[in-house]
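Dear colleague,

Thank you for sharing your sequence with our group. We've completed the structure prediction you requested, and as agreed, I am returning the results in plain text so they can be pasted directly into your records. Please verify that the sequence below matches your submission; if there's any discrepancy, let me know and we will rerun it promptly.
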Amino acid sequence: MNILLTGKPGVGKTTVIGKVLSRLTRRLGGFTTQEIRQEGCRVGFSIRAVDTGQEGILAHVNISGPYRVAKYGVNVEDMEKVGVSALRRALKSGDLIIMDEIGRMENYCPSFQRAVLEVLDAPKDVLGTLQMKSTPFLNQIRERPDVAVRLVTFRNRDALPAELIELLGRRDYRSEKNP
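Please find the predicted structure tokens below.
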């Protein structure tokens, strides 16, 4: 099952995923991304492998080069080193593959795009986030019949973790008494 959350920036997509993961007992693989902040301002994004903890810089205001999304220079090398490698490992050994977040920066990394599509094609459960913006790659993912895209809003974000746990299988649910 491929479940991808979408919604406006800051609505809580990553928080919903974190709450789901805290209740599941599965072998996890894939990657997460986080904002990099300095003095209260976002200056970039990091990428982290779920299984190994390996981290890299996905994009940063101080990265120069030909690949840019808004004010951020995209670090294709770390996207491949951390993100693509994490997805490849997850295909081999993960029960649940996390892809948080699939966005416009991937337009500059064909190997990352291929890895994302391979994950979505695999007989594994996937939980991730998909940027709302429109690009050919993001639209291709949205239009797949095997992808369920769920809109996260301020109104539904607190109920979503329980719904997603149900969709991903009760066998993995940790009861409140037995965390």
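Summary note from our side: The chain is about 30% helix and 30% strand.

Kind regards,
the structure core
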